[in-house]
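Notes from the 1:1 (GR / supervisor)

We went over the backlog. Supervisor wanted to see one worked example end to end before approving the batch request, so GR pasted a single chain during the call. The sequence is below; no edits were made to it. Supervisor asked that the structure be written out right there so they could see what the output format looks like.
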Amino acid sequence: MSPGDEPYVNGVRRQLTEANIINDVEFLPNLNNEERYEFLQSLSILSVPAEHKEAFGIYIIEALASGVPVVQPNHGAFPELMNITKGGIIYEPNEPQALADAIESLLLNPVYARKLGSQGKKAVIERFSIERMTKDFLKVLDEVIANQ
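Structure output shown during the call:
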């Protein structure tokens, strides 16, 4: 959480307090790598119903690398990531029932959820590992040099 995020987080805390559910929520700002891994391993599903169209979503890759299936809105980079990884479900954005249905479908079918998590983990290792990214970057550099 950056200082710029504090007003938003404080607003969320106020809303949760007013709804009398603040004790049902745990805030985990700025986890180190080990804490992030432990957190991701504790999840059944990760869903960040982002309203804006994210260009990548590193947290999606981190969740998938941990074998956690994801449920994300059908915009930004999420559809492409789900197409590549097969590690989650896409739902129509700004439709709370569609989000709830997607999450429920995984919670009620843990075998399917584990399958998505496994597919996602495998794809992330194959497509987004540092070794693969380095190899692909060097290939692009070679092409640039060859075309000069």
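Supervisor's comment: The chain has two domains: 1-30, 31-146.
Batch request approved.
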